[in-house]
Amino acid sequence: MQRILSSALAEHIGAEVTIAGWIHRRRMLKSVAFLILRDRAGFAQVVTTSAELEELSEETVVAVTGTVTANPVAPAGVELTGPRIEVLSDRVEALPVELFRPSLNVNLPTLLDHAALTLRHPARRPVFELSAAVIRGFRATLDGLGFTEVHSPKIVGVATESGANVFPIEYFGRTAYLAQSPQLYKQTLVGVFERVYEIGQAFRAEPSDTARHLAEYVSLDAELGFVESHRDVMKVLRDVFAGMIAEAAALPSVAAAGFDLPVVPEEIPIVHFSEALKIAGAPADEQDLAPAHERAVCEWAVREHGSEFVFVEGYPTLKRAFYTHPEPGREPYSRAFDLLFRGLELVSGSQRLHRYDDYVATLAQRGQALEPFAAFLEVFKLGMPPHGGFAIGLERLVAMLVGAQNVREVTFFPRDLHRVTP
Length: 422
What we know:
The protein folds into 2 domains: 6-89, CATH 2.40.50.140; 125-410, BirA Bifunctional Protein, domain 2 (2-Layer Sandwich), CATH 3.30.930.10. Helices cover 28% and strands 28% of the residues. The protein contains 12 helices and 18 strands. The chain has an 8-stranded mixed β-sheet with strand order 6-10-11-18-17-16-13-12, sandwiched between helices. Strands 1-2-3-5-4 form a 5-stranded mixed β-barrel. It is elongated, with a radius of gyration of 26 Å.
């Protein structure tokens, strides 16, 4: 069988061809019947008889050989006539939802419980094509900036960020953990390549049952050496976002879906944490931005700068990870930043500590033992450049770009407090 896709039918008018896919819908009239076939490229209309379709059902997988005939009212202006239909795989149980409806109109548990079927709905495909495009844009932008893609272990011996939100696992008679992030490894590899990035799974055992949290998600991480400050990291992040959005916007399916993609400004506005508190009307001694504060800062950025993106820099050092570089001369503050977008925190990053003695002092100040981090800290005894980086949660970004209310809607098979299947 030499198969062609539905999108190529118009190139073969008058020829006999074979297409294959799923029966998306059957329409049986008195004198004629139509089979709508769905493949990865779209839909094709097949003209047949009611008798032939009566034994078939939606989601049956078929191969159809027939003559391509022009018909202006058919999908793409063509249809298949005189078909021979071969069943490749039968559907053997009733469908919990009907995929030929324009929208699924099911609740979230149904959407996720029946992912094997609901993921096939045509309206869901552009969401995941956008997600794939975001990853391509991330990779292409950083490749163009001289970064090297790396892969770090997902089974680790020590918690990266803290010990409170890790998944312990039994590992040959001792306890190990699922990695919260590639943070310590990507810093180490700055000592090899100077600029690195990773696209991989991250695991957080946070008991958060919200629309924004997953126990397992895809993290887009980058780290770069020889920075003068966190501002160098922010510049790279701006370029990364421009590349990701451009790659997504170039997809016809994304354009057809009407997703509200943002414009990434040449210069994303920057506001210090202390000033962000004033903008939000929050007390000056607040140690973090609450969701309402983030929304207020984003509204300010749109109003004053016409930007849906805004950087907040200078978060309190003690509210950030131990490897975060303090702000010289303003020690309560750090060289850490968040990128806010449409009212929500989307990316976190910072300049990191790069001297061994600074790590020793910081861990002591925080009451954390040195020994669990001994292997990681070894690299800082060997000479490390000033460096920094950031991490983007893929699912959270995609949810915001497509207007989904819950990150689970844009995750193939989400893992959270309650869900480990399918």
